[in-house]
Amino acid sequence: MERYQRQMMLPEIGDAGQRKLCNARVLVVGAGGLGATLLPQLVGAGVGYIRLYDDDQVALHNLHRQTLFTMQDIDQPKASSAQQALQQRNPEVQIDAVQQPLSASNTLTALADCDLVIDAADNFAVTYQLSDACWPAGIPLISASVLARQGYVGGFCGTAPSYRALFPTLPRSAANCNTAGVMGPAVATLGAMQAQMALSVLLDLQPSPLGCVVNCDFVNWHFRQFRFDGAEEPANSVPFIDRTLLRGDDCIVELRSHEEAPTSVAPQVQRILPPAIATWQPPHDQRIVLVCASGIRAAQAATELAQRGCKRLAILAANRP
Known about the structure:
Elements: H1 5-8, H2 14-23, E1 25-29, H3 33-45, E2 49-53, H4 78-89, E3 94-98, H5 107-111, E4 116-119, H6 124-137, E5 140-147, E6 150-157, H7 163-166, H8 177-180, H9 184-202, E7 212-217, E8 222-227, E9 240-241, E10 251-254, E11 270-271, E12 288-292, H10 296-307, E13 313-317
Parallel strand pairs: 1-2, 1-4, 2-3, 4-5, 9-13, 10-11, 10-12, 12-13
Antiparallel strand pairs: 5-6, 6-7, 7-8
């Protein structure tokens, strides 16, 4: 156990805490900027099993912040490249690399037998899907997001309210680091904080990071923490689904124009642009699946339809698999 000597010196860890970490099973979704920092921290701490989901490949523009990778990894799958790099750091840890995206149809499989989930995808559709699965299962979820020089990290589900309890409505913008840019140190800081929160949950340290959010503003150098232990779960929420969960009797509403999406998610869809939802007469005997690129327009349409009494609604973000 010499590898872990420095952390085992802490009275709140010791031999018993190290055994907890060695027996822990963690799902990490995303091997990008956040994952590049948090994964080596988990492996270094001796977390025994990590299941890693990521379907992306390493690109040159990743390297300024995704420091787990090198020039030799370009065009290689991130999941397997991360697995190799992490095994070199600590061969005692088992890394199960899954070269697939997390989607609504495989979320429960991804969560199977895991004690903790870390959302490092920085994609709100993934975050809602993970929260929707972790909340009823009582599995803690550590999620982070960062854009430009600002971000947050928080602990959800488990003994705390879900992500939906704190963020019942989707953001109004789909901006991300691909469209708005990001600084590497900001991403690394949030990733390291995710790792610290995850280890604190696995070690059952108090006070728990579950039910806590930390906002990090590297523009004005403000760091704020607040707790949301008393946040109420929303009475009704619209789930995200993927294409494999479409049913033959669904009413599929494509919110994108023909110019934006010449081919939709199914052969038979109704093309209704968002401004026309207000006057559209929805069917009451079918599930209505609202489709757009990111899920934002679909969520806004779902809110409007729910206010009109529609109860069977679902969102499909077409840019997700």
